[in-house]
Amino acid sequence: MGILSWRGIAAGILLMVGLVAGTLPSKADPPPAKARIGDITFNYTPFQWRIEPNGTGLTATCVPVDCRGVVFDFSVRDGYGECGKDAVRETAARLFPMADRHAVNAFRSGRFGLVLAESRHGAALGVAEYVFACLDWQDREYRFAMRPETVGDSTWAGGALAYLVSRANTPPALVGVLKLRGLELPYPTEIWRPTEMAPGQSYWLACLPPTCRGEGEFVTVSAEPTEIGCTFDKVDGDLWNYSEPEVIPLTPSEPNGLAFSVGTTHSPCRNYVPPHRVACAWHDGIAYRITAPGGFGCKSGFDIPDDALENLVSGARLVPAQ
């Protein structure tokens, strides 16, 4: 058998494998497309969405049968902090007054935390749904408002929107820097949002979705003069017998980084409650502390993922002498 014959057989095998696996594009499938609003670029295929410019925003029409004909208006505005569950529930109730149920949930959609309301008549999940959603990203709020007149018989519009957002991308998030006395603390702005408490001495860092749930999770950062170095005291609880702190050193990721140690104190509650964690480093008479308060009592808690806290702590560095 000649070389050309072997090549033909090989090509046929590859063709069959591609058809079985579904990896070869069909001539009937439209090519992938992109649409951008603000910093967000949506990646989609036209047999799923039809997205068109509309002034400063976008109009997105859903194509699959479960949400066919549903139209979303995508918009962006400067501002931050209003994309929470309560605000989304109130907006959904205002947009869709005919519905009497406005279930609101926060979803991890790719690198975004999407807050989505699925409003319906009563509790039945099989009836048409009305959808409103938003997300905060880099000091901007993105809104996805369904046009009420396009509801029809759709029952999957919220899922289709969440999937579209999950495949979107943005440029790399900015990296901010906090300065406290002799320390610089870089932080990714897609995870942390700082508020200065005492100028140059303490900050409050809110943990953002989807890293955290967006329900009040935070850490505090402080720089306090002391001659006794770092201490890891047991949590004071009159009604609960908290564990003794377990102290573990962390290796700094920066050449001029400080060597922090993290003290972890666990709650005695039978159900899981996020632990109280304090990262502390002492240098030139200053104790630098990064504190995740954990839970209060046995029913509530502010859970900061371990890797998010450790990455924040390990990036701390000393300010070079001027």
In short:
The protein is of the alpha+beta class and 322 residues long. It folds into 2 domains: 24-166, 3-Layer(aba) Sandwich (Protein Transport Mog1p, Chain A), CATH 3.40.1000; 175-318, 3-Layer(aba) Sandwich (Protein Transport Mog1p, Chain A), CATH 3.40.1000. The chain contains 4 helices and 19 strands.
Kindly describe this structure.
The protein is α+β, with helices and mostly antiparallel strands and 322 residues long. It has two domains: 24-166, 3-Layer(aba) Sandwich (Protein Transport Mog1p, Chain A); 175-318, Protein Transport Mog1p, Chain A, CATH 3.40.1000. The protein is built from four helices and 19 strands. A seven-stranded antiparallel sheet has the order 3-4-5-9-8-7-6. The chain is elongated and about 70 Å long. The chain starts with a helix and ends with a strand.
Cα gyration radius (Å): 26 Å
User: Sheet bearing the most strands, described?
Assistant: 7 strands, antiparallel
Main β-sheet, spatial strand arrangement: 3-4-5-9-8-7-6
- Described by the principal axes of the CA atoms, the overall outline is elongated
- CATH topology assignment of the largest domain: Protein Transport Mog1p, Chain A
Total domain count: 2
What structural category do the secondary elements indicate? alpha+beta
CATH class of the largest domain equals Alpha Beta
Annotation field: number of helices:
4
What is the ordering of alpha helices and beta strands? HEEEEEHEEEEHEEEEEEEEEHE
User: How many strand segments?
Assistant: 19
Distance between the termini: 78 Å
Strand content range: 35-45%
Percent helix among the residues? 10-25%
CATH architecture classification of the largest domain? 3-Layer(aba) Sandwich
Arithmetic mean of pLDDT: 85
Provide the low-confidence segments as ranges: 1-25
